[in-house]
Design goal:
There is one protein chain. The chain has 234 residues and is α+β, with helices and mostly antiparallel strands. Helices cover 21% and strands 34% of the residues. The protein has one domain: Alpha-D-Glucose-1,6-Bisphosphate, Chain A, domain 4, CATH 3.30.530.20. The protein contains three helices and nine strands. Strands 1, 2, 3, 4, 5, 6, 7, 8 and 9 form a nine-stranded antiparallel sheet that branches. Helix 2 packs antiparallel against helix 3. It is globular and about 55 Å long.
């Protein structure tokens, strides 16, 4: 089940140990994607927002799309007052485990996810980049979530889409489950509203240094930090 505590967070050493413990942890759902529908009891939510405009054509090498791409890889679009992503930046994106630190009313919950797939396409009218992660055993939710940026080569407009298919997962105790049922959607909605705003702001800035100091984990959700990340394996 999800680890939790009130007030303070976890040390680098503790976080690394918890992250390593995710390696053999399975996803916490076994339903086919096409069966994860509202009719079958799954919540489907998300958002789609324009984050900027470039000249028509493929993405610029150092433009809005390229900056947003790095921010997606680094999970920098996440509001750190609600969710911070912790991961090893040396691990290639596909298959990468992440600890999501959920913050609610002073409580912190650590939940594991794994990057299932990466989408990167640049042919025809559109360029796409993004990834999907799946929730792991012990997460307070069950399901998957996509984060995808798209550029329309004809108009130059760039959009950021979030799409989640989820249902309630495993909670460490009864009061946390009741609390999630009462105020969880409020936090989810706030996070979805702030994510494109943050990505828009990040994408209009120039990238800087490394995603984390050498040998250390990345603790992401701060647009003032770097958006430079290792290139995904081809």
């Amino acid at each position: 089940m999800a680890l939790f505590r009130f007030g303070r967070g976890w040390s680098e050493a503790e976080m690394r140990g918890y992250l390593e413990a995710l390696r053999d942890r399975p996803v916490n759902f076994d339903v086919a994607i096409d069966q994860m529908t509202a009719e079958n009891g799954w919540t489907i939510d998300g958002s789609e927002d324009e984050i900027g405009v470039e000249p028509p054509g493929p993405p610029l090498p150092d433009g809005i799309f390229a900056h947003a791409r790095q921010a997606i890889l680094n999970y920098d679009f996440s509001d750190p007052s609600i969710v911070v992503g912790h991961f090893d930046p040396e691990v290639p994106p596909v298959g990468r485990d992440m600890l999501l630190e959920l913050k609610v009313l002073g409580f912190r919950f650590l939940c594991g996810v794994r990057v299932h797939s990466l989408r990167e396409e640049g042919c025809g009218r559109f360029s796409h980049f993004g990834f999907r992660y799946d929730t792991l055993e012990g997460h307070v939710e069950r399901g998957f979530e996509w984060f995808l940026i798209t550029k329309d080569h004809e108009t130059g407009r760039i959009h950021f889409k979030i799409e989640a298919h989820w249902r309630m997962g495993q909670f460490p105790n009864l009061w946390s489950r009741v609390g999630f049922e009462l105020i969880g959607e409020r936090y989810r909605e706030r996070w979805r509203h702030r994510a494109p705003e943050r990505l828009r702001r990040i994408a209009h800035k120039a990238a800087s240094g490394p995603v984390a100091e050498p040998g250390r984990l990345a603790h992401r959700g701060d647009e003032e930090a770097s958006r430079t990340a290792p290139e995904p394996a081809r």
